[in-house]
Amino acid sequence: MQAKNLRPAILCVAPNGARRTRRDHPNLPVTPAELGRVAAESLEAGAAMIHLHVRDRNLAHVLDVSAYRAAIQAVRSQVGDRLVIQVTTESCGLYGPEEQMRLVRELRPEAVSLSIGEVLPDPTFEAQAAEFLDWLRAEGIFAQFIVFDADQVRFLTGLIHRGIVPQSDPCVLFVLGRYTPNQQSAPSDLDPFLEVSPFREAWFLCAFGKHESACVDRALARGGHARIGFENNFYRPDGTPAAGNAELVGLAATCSLQRGRSPANADQARELFSRLL
């Protein structure tokens, strides 16, 4: 029997990603209207957040303020403020740190995800990154730092100790694997992150492939939160394709309840993130 009344689990839906196309899954949402619908469906299934990627007119990944505003408006029209909307700054090999930071400064989103290796690719960007991260904090924009391995966890920890990252215990996302063909994450892939991680309040996991639910369960059992959806995985645990993002969110919500953790709502997520600013 699992302990009850543990802290709520924040479930974030990541419905499309930068690299996926409808050749990968016919129900991949890419237009603002489609993102609005998947937001409403995912909210109903247990999500508190949505992680947005937007596309250009050719349906390719883009960091564009106008495209983001259209997507955010579409989501808000469907769910109001009942989801935290997080935008990505993922470069996908197309954008440098200056362009990523410029997007955020102009858009001023509620929340943003930042790959630590992209925003700070080498020491020459340290001063610029420090100023930008201080600005995010002053503006009350929730920042989540993406790390892909234990070395990046150590790197992020060092940036905190040196004052480049202003939060002492920031929100982080542990990515179990890489964006490679047929990547299959396993629950044990989480262990190297936790062995070196000092982060306690708001760490998330995302995983690739049909073991996504098992990886989510491992994270929830260890006190973490989860990002789920078609950006990383199209499959149910039995290997058959999921019908849509909301189905995968529902599986994560079931894991959460089985672990004695109710799925958080957006206000609970915002309260946690505000404590970390």
Provide a quick synopsis of the model.
The protein contains ten helices and ten strands. The chain has 277 residues and is α/β, with parallel strands linked by helices.
Quickly list its features.
277 residues; alpha/beta; TIM Barrel; 8-stranded parallel β-barrel; two-stranded antiparallel ribbon; 10 helices; 10 strands; globular
Task: Give your account of this protein's structure.
The protein is of the alpha/beta class and 277 residues long. It has a single domain (11-276), classed as TIM Barrel (Alpha-Beta Barrel). 40% of the residues lie in helices and 15% in strands. It is built from ten helices and ten strands. The protein has helices at residues 32-45, 65-79, 97-107, 116-119, 126-139, 150-161, 191-196, 212-221, 245-258, 266-276, and strands at 11-13, 49-52, 54-55, 61-62, 84-88, 111-115, 142-147, 171-176, 203-207, 225-228. The strands form two sheets. An eight-stranded parallel β-barrel has the order 1-2-5-6-7-8-9-10, surrounded by seven helices. Helix 1 (32-45) crosses helix 2, helix 1 (32-45) runs parallel beside helix 9 (245-258) and helix 8 runs parallel beside helix 9. The protein is globular and about 45 Å long. The model has no long low-confidence stretch (mean pLDDT 95).
